[in-house]
Structures are given as C-alpha cells and as structure tokens.
Queue: 3 jobs
Job 1
Amino acid sequence: MRYPQGGGLTAERQQFREELRLQAAERFARGEASSVIAKDLRVSVRSVQRWRQMWGEGGPRALRSQGPASLPRLSEKQFAQLEAELAKGPAAHGWEDQRWTLSRVKTVIGRRFHLTYTIQGVRKLLVRNGWSCQVPARRAMERDDAAVAGWIKEVWPCTEDSRRPVEPGSSSRTKPDSP
C-alpha cells in the first residue's frame, strides 16, 4: 500500500494496529481460532496466522510496533546542504550544461554525503521535500531544427512501421483459431 509523501503509517494508525495485534494475543492465550479472531477484528486470516506465529515465538512483546519501516537517510540539515549544492548549479559540480537530472543529483548526494540512492529514491526525496520536475519555458539555443526535421522525416517512420499490425483477434489465448 502506498501512502502520501512517500511515508508509512501515521503514529495514530501504528498505535491502532499495535492494539489490534495485542487484542489478538489475548485471544491466542484463550485458545480461540484464527478465523474467529480475524472476523471479529476485521483483518485477514493470514494476518492473524502470522501474528499467532510471532506470538508463539516471542510472546505479546513480539507483536509490539517496531516503529517506522525506514527513516529518511538524509536529515533535514543534510537536505538543506544538498539544496545549497543544487543552488550552485550543475556547472559548479563539473557538468557542462545547466540541467539537473536525477542521476546528477544522485551523484552529488554520493559525493557530498557518501550515501547511495536509486534514481527513484532521489525522485522521492526531492518530491517529499517540495521539489518538482520542471519543463523549460523556451527551447534551448543549441537546438538544431534541421536535425529534428530530418529525424522526424527519416527515423520516426521506421519506428512506426515496426509495430505489430492490428488485426482482429481472438478472445482465447490458447486456441486463437477456434470458431
């Protein structure tokens, strides 16, 4: 399940889920069936079975919340330092043009903080902190309109033809020729 701003359960929701597990633990001790507990607590039977196994191995203490699944790898102070680095621009970090890409931000994070992020992790980090992807307001001065026109005329038609032709098909994948 995905949550807004890339986070997990809220503290209140974590507390609620922990209370459910502890209620189930009391009922495990009384010897109630997993299906009855699941129905009463409005959770899946598989969850109750998993909780019962944890309870059997470690008692009610094993069912306590262990906190958030992960903590942000960059602290707020470090993210402020990252923003200062990004404000210097890509040229200050050795790139020729003035474009910040996710892979470049990933490289800056690695150089500055000695942390490894995935490209999607960098995107989530930036979005979580209020950044958004930007589209240029005008075309780049380096753009070669003749090259773009040539590509559209010569290369693009080849890519269109390489698609599979659209034909009437069958609803059966196993017997495509059946009547």
Job 2
Amino acid sequence: MWEPTEAEGGRLAVRWWKWAWSAPADRDPVTDETGEHADWNQPDDVWFLAGTYGGTVVRKCEIPAGRRVFLPVVNTVGPGNLLAPVPVEMGMTRAEATLNGKSLPLREYTSKPFRAKGLTRHVAWGLWSALDPLPPGPYVLEIRARSTGGFEVDTTYHLTAVA
C-alpha cells in the first residue's frame, strides 16, 4: 500500500490544489457532477481525484491502470503566513474512504506555505488517501466525511482502470 511520507503528502497536497485551481470554470474537476472532467491536466506520475465543495456527487470516469492515485477525503486551504504557517483545520466527526467496500487508510497532511493564484501564500490541510496503481477493471470508491461545523462530503466514484 502506497503511503506517502508526511513531507511527500504535503507536497502532493500542494500539487493537488494547483491542479484543481488550474482548471477553467467549465472544466473544474471539483464542481464536476459527472466525472467528465476527471482527466483535466493530470500529471504523468500520479492521478488526482477531485473532492467537492460539499454535498453529494456521483462521478464515473476512467483512470490509467498502473498509476498511483491521490485524493482528498476532506481538505481545506488557508492563508500561509511565513512566520506561523497555520492551516485551516476542520474538526471531523466522520471521515472514511472505501474501495470496493474495503476501508482505505487516511493520513493527515499539512503543506508548507505555497504560492498559487497570484502572489497569495496558502497552506493546505486535509485528510487524504493514496492508492497503489490499480489493475485494469471496475472499482467503486466511496468518500464520506462530516465536520463538527456541519460540512459534509458524500462522493461516489465509479472508476474503470484502463490499460
């Protein structure tokens, strides 16, 4: 099972945010309700799956077999002060991800301050999961999370890993 180190997870979180923010509004994988934009500008070494800005969504998409997958269960980004880079964390009452009904390990990652969307510095925080490369075939990935403040995520991906 691929489990990024704390430093690697923080770097992947930064890359994920830059990837998500790079999409124009009409191809935004985070607001995508069907999965048709899941392939937006994917890097060559990892496949990012998008979270949501809350609520329920069901997506269907193909991913390349043989590539690692990195995804948020819940994540946030906030201002990154050089002297005290404090992420915006969420208190969670529920956070889980399953692949074909089997629980996936979650890791908390916090990034170092990074610049994106102009000169603003950000710090990313989140509970993430990472998947080893999947062999070709169909998969169901379910992501459920609820914060103490009432924010909820209910995402289902119908994935097909293709050679």
Job 3
Amino acid sequence: MRRTAARAGAGPVVDAPGPEPVAGQGLGLGQTAAPAPAPAPAPAPAPVSVAQQLRTEFPFELPRGYVDASGTVHRDGVMRLATARDELIPLRDVRVQENPAYLSVVLLGRVITSLGTLPSVHDGVVENMFASDLAFLQDFYRQVNAEGHTRAAVECPHCSEPFEVELGGSRLGES
C-alpha cells in the first residue's frame, strides 16, 4: 500500500492500494519506495475585475420623451441586451408578418426594461413614441447588441489625438 498526498479540499490523507510488485521487480532488502510527488494544486481562479463583468443593462435618455395618457413625459430608461429569443419571437407576430417594419417596435418593446415611471414597457408604448425617439432607440439597440458597447472611437479635430466617448445615456448630438 502507498500513501497518496491530499489535494486541496479532497479530505484527509488516506492509504490507497498501489500496484503489487511483480515477481523479480520487488524492492530489495533495505530499499524503500520513494514517495510519489504531490500533484500541484490547481490555480485559484483569477478574481473577475469590474471591467471583465458582462454589462447587460444600459441607461438611456430619449431626445423628446414618451408622453403617456396623463401627459407625463418619460425620458430616462434602461435597455437590456437582447437574447436570440427576443429576436425570434417577434417574427411570429402577425403584425410583423404583415408589415416587417413593425419588427423594431415589437423588439424594442421586449428589451426596454424601464421608462420613466411607467409600470411596464411594451410594444404599445414604443408604437406611440415620437419618430425621433424611435430612431434613437433603434440606433441605441444596434450599438448595444451588435457592437457590444456604447463607446465610440473618435479623433480630436484640433490635435488629432484619438480618444473614446461614451454614447450610452447621452442625448442626440451630445458627446
């Protein structure tokens, strides 16, 4: 029998049966078996930095704002990353099948998680937004889902120094 080294979190050291010596290959008198080298401990997972965490929700501010039935203007909202299901489900909608332009309305109704103080956001809300707000949201959706971020690389017109600007949460025309 041989002793095996304990691995981290594997419990106490135990005696484990080893290979039986084959005739003529046994240990001679006075010889001892060399201990088996202990396996190297598994490296601890590296801590996930804030920069490596997946960002799934993105705040935005509508250029004009959605006006609800009581006249309240809602401008601040949050859009989440779209899933494959979000893009597939609207294709079964009769309104989308009759008019493919309606796809973005149904899709945005699924991925906008909040807008102002509205209790819920759905395609009926998106359908009644101003055209400039709809265009803003369509562009924002593409930035968030296709490019994976809301930053854009730009260059200073005066000194030609490159830098990035954050587009998420900004109003049209602002940087």
